[in-house]
Write a structure and sequence with these properties.
With 220 residues, the protein is α/β, with parallel strands linked by helices. The protein has a domain at 54-204: 3-Layer(aba) Sandwich (Rossmann fold), CATH 3.40.50. Helix content is 26%, strand content 27%. The protein has helices at 3-18, 26-34, 66-76, 93-101, 112-124; strands at residues 55-56, 62-63, 83-87, 104-109, 130-134, 147-152, 167-179, 182-192, 195-204. It is globular. Keywords: Methyltransferase, Transferase. Belongs to the methyltransferase superfamily. L-isoaspartyl/D-aspartyl protein methyltransferase family. GO terms for molecular function: protein-L-isoaspartate (D-aspartate) O-methyltransferase activity. InterPro entries: PCMT, SAM-dependent_MTases_sf.
């Protein structure tokens, strides 16, 4: 597939997938329209960069469908000057989107090779406002900071509150909760020190965040 084909595929993705999934925020659309997603996709799947599919990456993980990424970005609505946290860096594509929409981005992944690869991808796009960390954030990420936006890119079998207190007042958390075949994307907004509002966004399915906690169930 030539560069001209990829440009057309990107246009078609925005018009036929992303917009039709009620992503109408012009800032989000502009980022998706101009950021070359093919540069973040494994070489074997480059021709699928703009297809309506999850793209496999290493360690049994995936890149989300473009329409899901667009909806999550729209619901989080990162603003210039805001601080964003991403749990699950992967190839760095969503971190790059956040970097163009927010002020500063911290992105955490369990796997060092993901962090290294994402760093290369982000540098190739001239994005220098993303701080990459390696660590286990399945139960939360405590670094002494509070974030206006938190995006969790692996699903949680059961919702826990490990990320809730890392939000600023008014901060937004996007997370996908449940087990296959149908999971629920949620937007959680911190109202004050002890209150959070939860909004159901849409149904989807996504591999679980590695190490995400779940309650033990005992059968008699």
């Amino acid at each position: 597939m030539t560069d001209v084909d990829l440009a057309q595929a990107r246009f078609n993705m925005v018009e036929q997938q992303v917009r039709t999934w009620e992503v109408l925020n012009e800032r989000v659309l502009d980022v998706i329209e101009t950021l070359p997603r093919e540069d973040f996709v494994p070489a074997a799947y480059r021709n699928l960069a703009y297809a309506d599919v999850q793209i496999p990456i290493a360690h049994g993980q995936v890149m989300m469908e473009p329409k899901v990424e667009g909806r999550l970005l729209q619901c989080l609505d990162p603003q210039p000057g805001e601080r964003a946290l991403e749990i699950g860096t992967g190839t760095g594509y969503l971190a790059a989107c956040l970097a163009r929409l927010a002020g500063q981005v911290t992105s955490v992944d369990l796997y060092p090779d993901f962090a290294e690869l994402a760093g290369e991808h982000l540098a190739s796009q001239g994005l220098r406002n993303v701080h990459l960390e390696t660590g286990d954030a399945a139960r939360g990420w405590e670094d002494g900071r509070r974030y206006d936006v938190i995006a969790v890119t692996g699903s949680l079998p059961e919702l826990h509150e490990g990320f809730h207190r890392s939000l600023t007042i008014g901060g937004r958390l996007a997370v996908i909760v449940g087990t296959p075949p149908i999971m629920e994307a949620l937007l959680i907004t911190r109202i004050d020190d002890e209150q959070w509002a939860t909004e159901s966004l849409f149904d989807t399915s996504l591999p679980p965040l590695v190490g995400a906690p779940r309650q033990q169930r005992f059968e008699l």
